[in-house]
Write a structure and sequence with these properties.
Layout: H1 7-23, H2 30-37, H3 43-63, H4 77-81, H5 85-95, E1 97-102, E2 107-112, H6 115-134, H7 161-173, H8 180-203, H9 207-211, E3 218-219, E4 224-228, E5 234-238, H10 241-254, H11 278-289, H12 300-315, H13 318-325, H14 330-349
Antiparallel strand pairs: 1-2, 3-4, 4-5
Helix pairs in contact: 1-3, 3-6, 7-8, 8-10, 8-12, 12-13, 13-14
C-alpha cells in the first residue's frame, strides 16, 4: 500500500507545478531569486511573489514605449536599473486598478488593491530588488527610495457571547422552518456544519488548517488535533467538551459516507463526498452567520477572532493567546486585542476607592 499523501503535501505539489508555470512567463534571471528564497518561504508565498513580479514587469511593458514590443521573458537585469523612484510611485497608482491576463483562460480581469495589497506587492518588489542589489548584479535599488504604503488598522469584528450561542442554536434548530429539498439538504449536512463551526469557534484554528484536517489528525484520547500551521510547521491544538461532542456526532454520520476516490482521509466531506475547500467553508459560515447578525460580516477568520477574544478575556494571558492562535510574533496578537487591555485599564479607575462612605 502506498504511503498516505496528506492534504498539505498534495497542495505543496500542486503549488510547485503552478510556480513552474508562472516562472516560465518571467525572464530567466528571475529563477535565481526564487531559488534563493526557497529555503525560507512556502510554495504559496513564492507563487504570490511570482505573480507580483509579473505584474510589475507588465506595468513596465505598458508604461514604457521601449518595452511595449517585448515579451516579459525578454526583460534583462539591466532593465531593473533603469527604473526610477518616480516610476515606482506611478506603479503604486497603477496597482490600485489594472487589467491582468490569466494564462490558463486568456481572459483579462480587472484587479484592484487596497492598502494591504499595495504593501504586499511593494514588499515583494523590495525583496526582489534587494536580492540582485545585495549580490552586486545591479547597481541601483530604487525601491528603498520610496515610502511603503501606510496601513490603517480596521475595527476587529467578532461575535459576542450571545451571538455565538444564537449561531450554534440556529444551526441545531433551523431545520424546523425548512421544507422540501432545503430540509433534506439541511438534515444531510447538519451534523457536519455544527461540528465544523463549533470546531472553529472552540479552537481558533484557521480555515486552511481546518480543511486540511484528516480523520487521523483527531485524537480523542488527548482531545487534540494535529494541524499544519502557516509555513508548514506541525502543532497540536486542544479542544474542550463541546467540540468533542460535536465532532463525535459528526463522525457517526461520516462513517456512513462512501468518499470519492482520493478523499478517503479527509475529516470534513462536501455533499460531493470530497474534502471541503476553503471557499465552501467560507460560504457555509456566511450563510449561517447572516441569520444571526446583519450588521457584521462574519467569516471563518472572524470566528478565529471570536475565539481569541474569549480566551484572552478568560485568561488575560496574551502569550497564551498568541501561542494557541499560532502567531509567530506576540505583537500581532497584542494589536488585535489591545482594545480589551484598554477596557481592563478603565476598570482599574473604579477599582480603588479613596474614601469609604
Amino acid at each position: 500500500m502506498s504511503a498516505r499523501v496528506t492534504y498539505h503535501e498534495q497542495s505543496d505539489r500542486n503549488n510547485i507545478l503552478r510556480l513552474r508555470e508562472i516562472l516560465a512567463t518571467l525572464p530567466p534571471f528571475a529563477k535565481e531569486y526564487f531559488r534563493a528564497v526557497e529555503p525560507t518561504t512556502s510554495t504559496r508565498t513564492r507563487i504570490s511573489y511570482a505573480y507580483d513580479v509579473r505584474v510589475f514587469l507588465q506595468f513596465l511593458k505598458e508604461s514604457n514605449p521601449l518595452y511595449r514590443s517585448r515579451d516579459l521573458t525578454e526583460f534583462k537585469l539591466s532593465d531593473l536599473e533603469n527604473v526610477t523612484a518616480q516610476d515606482l510611485v506611478e506603479y503604486m497608482e497603477y496597482l490600485k486598478l489594472y487589467s491582468a491576463r490569466e494564462n490558463a483562460s486568456g481572459r483579462e480581469e480587472i484587479q484592484t488593491n487596497g492598502e494591504r495589497g499595495l504593501k504586499r506587492k511593494m514588499s515583494s518588489l523590495r525583496s526582489f530588488y534587494a536580492f540582485y542589489y545585495r549580490h552586486e548584479m545591479i547597481t541601483a535599488n530604487p525601491t528603498v527610495l520610496i515610502d511603503m504604503p501606510k496601513i490603517h488598522e480596521k475595527t476587529i469584528v467578532r461575535l459576542d457571547a450571545g451571538e455565538v450561542a444564537a449561531l450554534l442554536d440556529y444551526i441545531e434548530n433551523c431545520g424546523e422552518s425548512l421544507t422540501g429539498q432545503a430540509a433534506a439538504y439541511y438534515q444531510k449536512t447538519k451534523e457536519r456544519d455544527l461540528a465544523l463551526i463549533t470546531l472553529l469557534l472552540g479552537t481558533g484554528i484557521r480555515v486552511s488548517e481546518c480543511v486540511g484536517l484528516d480523520i487521523e489528525d483527531v485524537d480523542f484520547r488527548e482531545n487534540r488535533l494535529k494541524i499544519v500551521r502557516k509555513g508548514g510547521n506541525e502543532a497540536y491544538v486542544y479542544f474542550g467538551q463541546e467540540v468533542e461532542t460535536a465532532l463525535r456526532r459528526y463522525l457517526d454520520v461520516r462513517a456512513g459516507i462512501e468518499p470519492a476516490a482520493g478523499h478517503e482521509h479527509a475529516l470534513f466531506y462536501s455533499v460531493q463526498r470530497k474534502r471541503m475547500n476553503v471557499r465552501s467553508v467560507e460560504n457555509l459560515v456566511e450563510k449561517y452567520a447572516s441569520s444571526v447578525t446583519t450588521t457584521k460580516k462574519i467569516t471563518p477568520h472572524k470566528l478565529r477572532s471570536t475565539y481569541g477574544t474569549a480566551l484572552y478575556r478568560e485568561t488575560g494571558d496574551i502569550y497564551l493567546v498568541a501561542d494557541v492562535l499560532g502567531h509567530k510574533n506576540v505583537d500581532t496578537t497584542r494589536r488585535h486585542y489591545a482594545a480589551m487591555d484598554d477596557d481592563r485599564r478603565r476598570s482599574a479607575a473604579s477599582a480603588v476607592h479613596l474614601r469609604r462612605d
